[in-house]
């Protein structure tokens, strides 16, 4: 998988404007970046003539053993932060989190806000450093904090740091899966398909198969994963009912067809050839021909592309107003323009 960065620096009288094209997992609205930028704008307006003095004061507070970092101090500094402030932010978080919790009466949750700041400032290394710092234990316990960090790492192709697509990643994900199952948690479909895709790539189709059992089978991601997993396990004939099921649903006139990716069909074909069974090959050829004839084989996408489509909020309409704020929608995978002042 590749991610293309294209930087365009526009010189203005007072600053530089950098536009960076990145591929991301989530849209800014889904991660709360849009809301963070609004809060940042208000803070900058509030501190128009006081920002530098406030930074100096925070540096003094961090260095002194006799002063505390209060919730408002950290909140304001996060929303004022520029790239040159990252070291100060890291030190403030350490000190704030190590202070006696009995002296903190507010319920403000900093983890997601801090990660949105790192995301906006395009600072993946500092985000990781802060996330893994033992002094910050419990600071990033929120699921959304993890999602924002993963999106930032993904946009920089820091796949090793994401535990992505390696035997170690599968081991790590399997442990998380077992922990969730033991507590009765049911992972969302996106998590299931990512886990299954990882298992397929690491040669563990049985894990991929098991991870999607709780999901509805009519989703394109689920049925393609199921066919690939069965093929990889050598259970070729078990793929036939799944392949034929879409022909019972679809008609040639339908615009939104229930399809299989070409790579899934080819995976089954490879498994058929390994069997060296003429009867099985004949059945498969008939099914593959029928699928192609009805336009139910999609050669324009792969499973990877589907899994990596950006996750966005739904558009609010009169019909869905009041429903869940988060959902997935299909968008064309491509670079997103990311803008920040440096």
UniProtKB/TrEMBL annotation:
Superkingdom field: Eukaryota
GO molecular function: RNA binding
GO biological process: mitochondrion organization; regulation of mRNA processing
InterPro entries registered for this protein in UniProt: PTCD2
Biased composition (Polar residues): 319-330
Stretches the record annotates as Disordered: 315-342
Gene Ontology CC: mitochondrion
Protein name stated in the entry: Pentatricopeptide repeat-containing protein 2
Species: Spodoptera exigua
């Amino acid at each position: 998988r590749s991610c293309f960065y294209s930087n365009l620096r526009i010189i203005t009288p007072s600053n530089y404007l950098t536009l960076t094209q990145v591929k991301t997992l989530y849209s800014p609205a889904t991660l709360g970046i849009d809301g963070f930028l609004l809060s940042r704008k208000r803070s900058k307006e509030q501190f128009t003539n006081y920002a530098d003095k406030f930074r100096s004061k925070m540096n003094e507070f961090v260095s002194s053993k006799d002063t505390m970092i209060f919730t408002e101090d950290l909140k304001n500094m996060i929303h004022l932060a520029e790239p040159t402030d990252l070291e100060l932010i890291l030190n403030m978080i350490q000190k704030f989190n190590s202070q006696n919790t009995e002296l903190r009466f507010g319920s403000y949750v900093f983890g997601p806000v801090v990660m949105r700041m790192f995301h906006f400032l395009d600072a993946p290394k500092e985000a990781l450093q802060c996330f893994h710092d033992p002094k910050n234990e419990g600071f990033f316990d929120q699921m959304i904090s993890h999602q924002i960090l993963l999106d930032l790492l993904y946009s920089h192709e820091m796949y090793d740091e994401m535990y992505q697509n390696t035997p170690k990643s599968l081991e790590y994900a399997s442990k998380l899966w077992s922990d969730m199952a033991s507590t009765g948690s049911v992972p969302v479909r996106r998590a299931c398909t990512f886990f299954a895709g990882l298992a397929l790539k690491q040669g563990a189709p049985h894990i991929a198969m098991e991870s999607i059992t709780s999901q509805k089978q009519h989703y394109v991601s689920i049925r393609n994963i199921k066919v690939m997993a069965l093929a990889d396990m050598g259970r070729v004939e078990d793929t036939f009912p799944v392949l034929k099921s879409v022909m019972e649903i679809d008609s040639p006139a339908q615009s939104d067809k229930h399809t299989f990716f070409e790579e899934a069909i080819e995976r089954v074909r490879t498994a058929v050839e390994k069997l060296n069974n003429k009867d099985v090959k004949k059945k498969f050829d008939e099914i593959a021909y029928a699928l192609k004839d009805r336009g139910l084989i999609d050669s324009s996408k792969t499973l990877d592309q589907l899994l990596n489509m950006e996750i966005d909020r739904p558009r609010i309409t009169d019909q869905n107003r009041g429903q869940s704020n988060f959902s997935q929608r299909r968008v064309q995978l491509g670079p997103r323009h990311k803008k920040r002042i440096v």
